[in-house]
Protein backbone atom coordinates (compact mmCIF):
# COMPACT_ATOMS: atom_id res chain seq x y z
CA UNK A 1 0.00 0.00 0.00
CA UNK A 2 1.40 3.46 -0.82
CA UNK A 3 2.67 5.14 2.33
CA UNK A 4 0.24 8.09 2.25
CA UNK A 5 -2.68 5.66 2.10
CA UNK A 6 -1.15 3.71 4.97
CA UNK A 7 -0.92 6.91 7.04
CA UNK A 8 -4.51 7.86 6.23
CA UNK A 9 -5.80 4.36 7.03
CA UNK A 10 -3.75 3.97 10.21
CA UNK A 11 -6.06 3.06 13.09
CA UNK A 12 -3.42 3.74 15.72
CA UNK A 13 -5.34 6.78 16.85
CA UNK A 14 -3.99 8.74 19.82
CA UNK A 15 -6.40 11.66 20.00
CA UNK A 16 -8.73 13.92 18.11
CA UNK A 17 -7.21 17.40 18.10
CA UNK A 18 -9.96 19.17 16.18
CA UNK A 19 -12.60 18.45 13.58
CA UNK A 20 -10.01 18.12 10.80
CA UNK A 21 -6.87 17.05 12.72
CA UNK A 22 -6.20 13.67 14.31
CA UNK A 23 -3.07 12.49 16.03
CA UNK A 24 -1.86 8.97 15.21
CA UNK A 25 1.13 6.79 16.00
CA UNK A 26 2.82 5.61 12.78
CA UNK A 27 5.69 3.24 13.44
CA UNK A 28 7.95 5.27 15.81
CA UNK A 29 6.52 8.71 14.95
CA UNK A 30 3.58 10.73 16.22
CA UNK A 31 1.78 12.37 13.30
CA UNK A 32 -0.91 15.03 12.97
CA UNK A 33 -3.07 13.97 10.04
CA UNK A 34 -5.05 16.77 8.40
CA UNK A 35 -8.21 15.99 6.47
CA UNK A 36 -9.85 19.29 5.51
CA UNK A 37 -12.32 19.95 2.67
CA UNK A 38 -9.54 21.94 0.91
CA UNK A 39 -6.51 19.65 1.44
CA UNK A 40 -4.99 16.50 2.91
CA UNK A 41 -1.67 16.68 4.73
CA UNK A 42 0.31 15.21 7.63
CA UNK A 43 3.00 16.54 9.95
CA UNK A 44 5.39 14.49 12.07
CA UNK A 45 6.21 15.92 15.49
CA UNK A 46 9.74 14.71 14.84
CA UNK A 47 11.28 17.59 12.95
CA UNK A 48 8.01 19.59 12.64
CA UNK A 49 8.15 17.81 9.31
CA UNK A 50 5.35 18.35 6.79
CA UNK A 51 5.14 14.90 5.16
CA UNK A 52 2.83 15.65 2.23
CA UNK A 53 0.29 18.20 1.10
CA UNK A 54 -2.36 17.58 -1.53
CA UNK A 55 -5.04 20.14 -2.34
CA UNK A 56 -8.35 18.30 -2.74
CA UNK A 57 -8.67 19.17 -6.43
CA UNK A 58 -5.19 17.77 -7.24
CA UNK A 59 -4.83 14.16 -8.46
CA UNK A 60 -1.47 13.66 -6.69
CA UNK A 61 0.48 15.22 -3.79
CA UNK A 62 2.20 18.55 -4.48
CA UNK A 63 4.56 18.09 -1.52
CA UNK A 64 5.86 14.56 -2.13
CA UNK A 65 6.74 11.75 0.29
CA UNK A 66 8.88 8.71 -0.58
CA UNK A 67 7.03 5.39 -0.37
CA UNK A 68 10.16 4.00 1.30
CA UNK A 69 10.46 6.79 3.91
CA UNK A 70 11.55 5.55 7.33
CA UNK A 71 9.58 6.50 10.44
CA UNK A 72 12.28 5.63 12.97
CA UNK A 73 13.17 7.91 15.86
CA UNK A 74 16.25 10.00 15.15
CA UNK A 75 16.31 9.17 11.42
CA UNK A 76 15.55 11.82 8.79
CA UNK A 77 12.39 11.28 6.73
CA UNK A 78 12.80 11.16 2.93
CA UNK A 79 10.31 13.59 1.39
CA UNK A 80 7.96 16.32 2.56
CA UNK A 81 9.63 19.45 3.91
CA UNK A 82 12.53 18.58 6.22
CA UNK A 83 13.76 21.56 8.28
CA UNK A 84 17.53 21.82 7.96
CA UNK A 85 18.77 23.84 10.95
CA UNK A 86 21.14 25.14 12.42
CA UNK A 87 23.32 24.11 9.49
CA UNK A 88 22.74 23.12 5.92
CA UNK A 89 24.83 20.31 4.43
CA UNK A 90 26.88 17.44 5.75
CA UNK A 91 30.16 19.06 6.75
CA UNK A 92 28.95 18.81 10.38
CA UNK A 93 27.07 15.92 11.98
CA UNK A 94 24.19 15.19 11.89
CA UNK A 95 23.77 16.09 8.20
CA UNK A 96 21.52 19.15 7.74
CA UNK A 97 21.47 19.85 11.50
CA UNK A 98 19.46 18.31 14.29
CA UNK A 99 16.09 20.09 13.98
CA UNK A 100 14.75 17.38 11.63
CA UNK A 101 15.60 14.47 13.94
CA UNK A 102 14.33 15.67 17.34
CA UNK A 103 10.78 15.94 18.68
CA UNK A 104 8.99 19.29 18.56
CA UNK A 105 5.92 20.27 20.55
CA UNK A 106 2.53 21.00 19.08
CA UNK A 107 1.48 24.35 20.58
CA UNK A 108 -1.60 25.44 18.71
CA UNK A 109 -4.17 24.35 16.13
CA UNK A 110 -6.78 26.56 14.53
CA UNK A 111 -9.11 25.67 11.68
CA UNK A 112 -11.80 27.34 9.65
CA UNK A 113 -13.24 26.96 6.17
CA UNK A 114 -9.97 28.31 4.64
CA UNK A 115 -7.81 25.55 6.13
CA UNK A 116 -5.85 24.49 9.19
CA UNK A 117 -3.09 26.38 10.99
CA UNK A 118 -0.65 24.52 13.25
CA UNK A 119 2.24 25.86 15.30
CA UNK A 120 5.08 23.70 16.62
CA UNK A 121 8.01 24.77 18.77
CA UNK A 122 11.47 23.59 19.75
CA UNK A 123 13.87 24.84 22.44
CA UNK A 124 17.30 23.68 23.50
CA UNK A 125 17.44 20.45 25.46
CA UNK A 126 20.35 18.42 26.87
CA UNK A 127 20.29 16.49 23.57
CA UNK A 128 20.45 19.60 21.32
CA UNK A 129 23.18 21.17 23.51
CA UNK A 130 25.34 18.14 22.73
CA UNK A 131 25.00 18.85 19.01
CA UNK A 132 25.25 22.66 19.26
CA UNK A 133 26.11 24.71 22.36
CA UNK A 134 23.43 27.44 22.06
CA UNK A 135 20.11 28.29 23.65
CA UNK A 136 17.41 28.96 21.09
CA UNK A 137 13.70 29.09 20.38
CA UNK A 138 12.20 27.91 17.09
CA UNK A 139 8.64 27.98 15.84
CA UNK A 140 7.24 26.37 12.69
CA UNK A 141 3.90 27.67 11.49
CA UNK A 142 1.91 25.77 8.86
CA UNK A 143 -1.08 27.22 7.06
CA UNK A 144 -2.60 24.42 5.02
CA UNK A 145 -5.54 24.87 2.69
CA UNK A 146 -5.74 25.69 -0.98
CA UNK A 147 -2.14 26.91 -0.58
CA UNK A 148 0.58 25.66 1.77
CA UNK A 149 2.49 28.24 3.77
CA UNK A 150 5.40 27.20 5.98
CA UNK A 151 7.34 29.67 8.10
CA UNK A 152 10.28 29.13 10.46
CA UNK A 153 10.90 31.72 13.23
CA UNK A 154 14.11 31.71 15.24
CA UNK A 155 15.16 33.49 18.37
CA UNK A 156 18.44 33.38 20.33
CA UNK A 157 22.05 34.55 20.09
CA UNK A 158 23.69 32.67 17.24
CA UNK A 159 24.39 32.39 13.53
CA UNK A 160 22.74 29.52 11.65
CA UNK A 161 22.29 28.31 8.09
CA UNK A 162 19.03 26.65 7.20
CA UNK A 163 16.76 25.22 4.51
CA UNK A 164 13.14 24.28 4.06
CA UNK A 165 14.12 21.28 1.96
CA UNK A 166 10.88 20.86 -0.02
CA UNK A 167 10.29 17.76 -2.16
CA UNK A 168 7.76 18.36 -4.97
CA UNK A 169 5.84 15.67 -6.83
CA UNK A 170 6.25 15.71 -10.63
CA UNK A 171 4.80 13.48 -13.36
CA UNK A 172 8.19 12.77 -14.98
CA UNK A 173 11.43 14.60 -14.20
CA UNK A 174 12.44 14.43 -17.89
CA UNK A 175 9.42 16.61 -18.78
CA UNK A 176 9.88 19.24 -16.06
CA UNK A 177 11.23 22.78 -16.38
CA UNK A 178 12.13 25.05 -13.47
CA UNK A 179 11.97 28.81 -13.87
CA UNK A 180 12.96 31.75 -11.70
CA UNK A 181 16.28 30.41 -10.43
CA UNK A 182 18.49 33.23 -11.72
CA UNK A 183 21.78 32.73 -13.55
CA UNK A 184 24.34 32.19 -10.76
CA UNK A 185 24.85 28.94 -8.95
CA UNK A 186 27.35 26.80 -7.13
CA UNK A 187 27.49 23.29 -8.52
CA UNK A 188 27.97 20.96 -5.55
CA UNK A 189 28.89 18.14 -7.95
CA UNK A 190 31.78 19.93 -9.62
CA UNK A 191 34.84 21.95 -8.64
CA UNK A 192 34.95 23.66 -12.03
CA UNK A 193 33.21 27.06 -12.33
CA UNK A 194 29.80 26.26 -13.77
CA UNK A 195 28.45 27.88 -16.92
CA UNK A 196 25.71 30.47 -16.35
CA UNK A 197 22.25 29.00 -16.25
CA UNK A 198 20.55 30.70 -19.16
CA UNK A 199 16.78 30.60 -19.26
CA UNK A 200 15.07 27.71 -17.57
CA UNK A 201 16.42 24.49 -16.17
CA UNK A 202 15.64 20.95 -17.34
CA UNK A 203 16.92 17.57 -16.13
CA UNK A 204 18.90 14.78 -17.77
CA UNK A 205 21.30 13.87 -14.95
CA UNK A 206 21.97 14.26 -11.22
CA UNK A 207 21.62 17.87 -10.05
CA UNK A 208 22.78 19.48 -6.79
CA UNK A 209 23.02 23.27 -7.13
CA UNK A 210 22.85 26.28 -4.84
CA UNK A 211 21.34 29.19 -6.79
CA UNK A 212 22.69 32.34 -5.19
CA UNK A 213 20.64 35.08 -6.93
CA UNK A 214 17.22 33.46 -7.35
CA UNK A 215 14.00 35.34 -8.04
CA UNK A 216 11.40 35.42 -5.23
CA UNK A 217 9.20 32.94 -7.12
CA UNK A 218 10.32 29.60 -8.59
CA UNK A 219 7.99 27.70 -10.91
CA UNK A 220 8.04 23.97 -11.54
CA UNK A 221 6.39 23.62 -14.94
CA UNK A 222 4.99 20.13 -15.31
CA UNK A 223 2.72 18.61 -17.95
CA UNK A 224 -0.62 19.26 -16.27
CA UNK A 225 0.26 21.78 -13.59
CA UNK A 226 2.67 24.47 -12.57
CA UNK A 227 3.81 24.60 -8.94
CA UNK A 228 4.40 28.15 -7.74
CA UNK A 229 6.96 28.42 -4.94
CA UNK A 230 7.11 31.83 -3.33
CA UNK A 231 10.15 32.31 -1.08
CA UNK A 232 10.18 34.85 1.79
CA UNK A 233 13.26 36.41 3.44
CA UNK A 234 15.40 33.73 1.78
CA UNK A 235 18.85 34.10 0.25
CA UNK A 236 19.37 30.99 -1.88
CA UNK A 237 17.40 28.25 -3.62
CA UNK A 238 18.82 24.72 -3.83
CA UNK A 239 17.74 22.33 -6.59
CA UNK A 240 18.42 18.64 -6.03
CA UNK A 241 17.62 15.39 -7.80
CA UNK A 242 19.76 12.29 -7.05
CA UNK A 243 19.09 10.63 -10.45
CA UNK A 244 19.55 6.89 -11.10
CA UNK A 245 22.65 5.70 -9.22
CA UNK A 246 22.27 7.77 -6.04
CA UNK A 247 18.57 6.88 -5.80
CA UNK A 248 19.50 3.19 -6.04
CA UNK A 249 22.00 3.66 -3.22
CA UNK A 250 19.41 5.23 -0.89
CA UNK A 251 17.36 2.66 0.99
CA UNK A 252 14.57 5.17 1.66
CA UNK A 253 14.01 5.87 -2.06
CA UNK A 254 12.53 3.37 -4.51
CA UNK A 255 14.86 2.89 -7.51
CA UNK A 256 12.68 4.78 -10.00
CA UNK A 257 11.28 7.38 -7.64
CA UNK A 258 13.87 10.00 -8.69
CA UNK A 259 11.62 10.44 -11.75
CA UNK A 260 8.72 11.60 -9.64
CA UNK A 261 10.15 14.36 -7.44
CA UNK A 262 12.42 17.35 -7.47
CA UNK A 263 13.66 19.34 -4.47
CA UNK A 264 13.44 23.13 -4.74
CA UNK A 265 14.61 24.34 -1.35
CA UNK A 266 14.08 27.74 0.27
CA UNK A 267 17.41 28.48 1.96
CA UNK A 268 19.46 30.76 4.15
CA UNK A 269 22.98 29.66 3.22
CA UNK A 270 24.97 32.67 2.00
CA UNK A 271 23.09 35.03 4.29
CA UNK A 272 22.87 33.00 7.47
CA UNK A 273 20.31 33.82 10.16
CA UNK A 274 22.36 36.02 12.55
CA UNK A 275 20.72 36.99 15.81
CA UNK A 276 21.54 38.83 19.01
CA UNK A 277 19.48 38.04 22.15
CA UNK A 278 16.60 40.48 21.65
CA UNK A 279 16.17 39.74 17.96
CA UNK A 280 14.16 37.20 16.10
CA UNK A 281 14.05 36.28 12.42
CA UNK A 282 11.77 34.36 10.16
CA UNK A 283 11.75 33.03 6.64
CA UNK A 284 9.48 30.75 4.68
CA UNK A 285 7.73 29.55 1.59
CA UNK A 286 4.22 29.58 0.16
CA UNK A 287 3.30 26.86 -2.33
CA UNK A 288 0.34 26.87 -4.69
CA UNK A 289 -0.73 25.22 -7.94
CA UNK A 290 -1.57 26.95 -11.20
CA UNK A 291 -3.13 25.20 -14.19
O1 LIG B 1 20.11 12.79 2.28
P1 LIG B 1 19.91 14.12 2.93
O2 LIG B 1 20.81 14.34 4.12
O3 LIG B 1 18.47 14.36 3.30
O4 LIG B 1 20.31 15.22 1.87
C1 LIG B 1 19.74 15.23 0.59
C2 LIG B 1 20.32 16.39 -0.24
O5 LIG B 1 20.01 17.60 0.39
C3 LIG B 1 20.39 18.80 -0.31
O6 LIG B 1 19.62 18.99 -1.44
C4 LIG B 1 21.86 18.81 -0.62
O7 LIG B 1 22.21 19.89 -1.48
C5 LIG B 1 22.30 17.48 -1.23
O8 LIG B 1 23.71 17.48 -1.34
C6 LIG B 1 21.83 16.31 -0.39
O9 LIG B 1 22.24 15.10 -0.98
TrEMBL record:
Query: Keywords, A to Z?
Result: Isomerase
Q: Which reaction does it catalyse?
A: alpha-D-glucose 6-phosphate = beta-D-glucose 6-phosphate
Tell me the InterPro entries matching this sequence. Aldose_1/G6P_1-epimerase (IPR008183), G6P_1-epimerase (IPR025532), Gal_mutarotase_sf_dom (IPR011013), GH-type_carb-bd (IPR014718)
Q: Does the keyword Calcium apply?
A: no
> What's the EC number here?
5.1.3.15
Residues that span the membrane, as ranges? none
Q: Which Gene3D superfamilies match?
A: 2.70.98.10
Which family would the database say this protein is a member of?
Belongs to the glucose-6-phosphate 1-epimerase family.
Name of this protein: Putative glucose-6-phosphate 1-epimerase
Amino acid sequence: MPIIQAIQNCRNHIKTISQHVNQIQFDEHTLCVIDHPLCQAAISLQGAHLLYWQPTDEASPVVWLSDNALFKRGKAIRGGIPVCWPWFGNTLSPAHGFARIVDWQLKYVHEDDQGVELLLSLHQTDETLQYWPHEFGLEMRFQLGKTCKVELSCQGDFSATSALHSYFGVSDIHQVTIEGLGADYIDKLSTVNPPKNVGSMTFDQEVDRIYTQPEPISYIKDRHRSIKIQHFTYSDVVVWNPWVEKAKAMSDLADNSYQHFVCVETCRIHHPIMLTPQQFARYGVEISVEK
